[in-house]
Amino acid sequence: MDMFEYRNKTLLCEKVKVEDIISDVGTPAYVYSKNSIVTQYHALETAFRAVDTLICFSVKSNSNLSICKLLAGEGSGFDVVSGGELFRAIRAGGDPSKIVFAGVGKTYQELRYALENDIFMFNVESLAELERINTLAGETGKIPKVALRINPDIDAKTHAKTTTGKKENKFGIDFTEAERIIKQSMMYPSIDLCGLHVHLGSPIYTVDPYVHALKKIVTLINKCRDAGLDIRYMNIGGGYCISYTGENVIQPQDYASQILPLVKEMQCNLIMEPGRFIMGNSGILITRVIYTKETPHGKKFVICDAAMNDLVRPALYDAFHRIWPVNTNIKMPKVENPDKPVTKKGIGLVDIVGPVCESSDVFATKRALPSVREGDLLAIYSAGAYGFSMSSNYNSRPRPCEVLVDGDQYHVIRERETYEDLVRGENFV
Ligand code: LLP
User: With 80 as the cut, is the pLDDT of residue 164 above it?
Assistant: First the structure.
């Protein structure tokens, strides 16, 4: 079900014309579909229903309060990686008893904050962290649940900058160290060591890395149980892919059909931490063409008012995002091959760029795009995850507003920043 569709040559989000939203809120603007978010959440929930599963939405993918509130209302827990994300999840109405906390560098302050709020589980990434939690918990008399995050040394074949489960990555604990910790677990009386956690990278386009990791971990679970530990939770992290190009990709049931039998064999409850799968294709970034420019060397630039500070994925990971005019009588192709752009009458090859003073401020190079003029609106697709949440104020650019569409209604869920917002907190000396 696609919540972003063209009708009568104009793009709709659910039942609202995107151009109507934009005449109200301006550009650049993130526009999200509530229906899409809820549908994606329940697609995962349904696929994994056969075992007791807790879905913890990965707050880093989109941390807007209204988005978190919406998902909390659907029953979601949260995966957080900082005190700030924990604050957001709680502020949005998230149930602390469904919050898991990962990250290699949790500070004293963050650990205390999480303990005070009785979160569900700490995903622990080093012996030093385990010792620190044991000490802090001992002071409070609490016995928090802990999962060891295992680094299974598996290549999930993602972009080098988003792979996390290889031995050279900073994340998790390798098997030898994990076995040592398990053998000495009686040294940590203030901890309930009851789970194992992996997160392999993102996005992962096959089930194989999950299967491979779980097969390696089954042996470790047996060793835990032999050592007297009551292991009850297997957290398989996030990484579930979405289609950025329109091509078919694997679906929740494809993941579930291979992952569930292994989790059943482990006799564990399942925890998963999806971010991109829920939000990625639930949001678009709308930008306006400021100028077009043609060089004597035959380069054609479309210069728009969104930039790498608003959506950094193309600049950071060479990520492909589909881009098409909001108003056009030319149909967006069903599938795009990033390496083979198709041009025809009315469609030329252009570079779509932002105004930031960096050569990497490019959304697309040699991209097939219907001809556009100053003032036209462009939609940048698949921008709901790791879009706004990775935005910055670089070049002193106020960040865009965020809009949530619900049927024929829409709401501004984050105001556009102002110049005053840019200097808030700064002092003259
Ligand atoms: N759990 C942990 C421990 C994670 O580190 C992540 C993402 C997730 C869950 C959620 O992964 P997802 O389901 O969204 O794939 N900025 C990059 C992605 C970085 C992902 C970092 N960790 C991007 O824009 O592609």
Answer: no
Alpha-carbon distance of 66 to 72, in angstroms, equals: 10
- Mean pLDDT over the full length of the chain: 96
State in Å: Cα 275 to ligand 1 middle.
7
**160: its two tokens:** 């080098």
Phi and psi at 194, nearest 5°, equal -125, 5
Boundaries of domain holding 222: 34-276
Q: Which of 199, 352, 387, 377 is nearest to 280 (CA)?
A: 387
Residues linked to residue 304 through DSSP beta bridges, in sequence order: 289
Q: Which of 228, 248, 276 is the last residue of a domain?
A: 276
The length of the chain is: 429
Position of tokens 């609202």? 16
CA of 271 to the centre of ligand 1 (A): 15
Distance CA 52, CA 281 (A): 27
Does 357 participate in catalysis according to the annotation? yes
**Using CA positions, which residue lies closest to atom 16 of ligand 1?**
386
pLDDT at 240 over 70: yes
Answer whether residue 1 shows pLDDT above 60: no
Mutate to test the pocket of ligand 1, among 202, 271, 277, 363 (most ligand atoms within 8 A of CB): 202
* pTM score above 0.85: yes
| Helix 108-116 with 127-140: angle, nearest 10 deg | 50
Do residue 28 and residue 110 come from a single domain? no
pLDDT at residue 201 greater than cutoff 90: yes
Same domain, 108 and 179: yes
Assign 160 a pLDDT band (cuts: 50, 70, 90).
confident
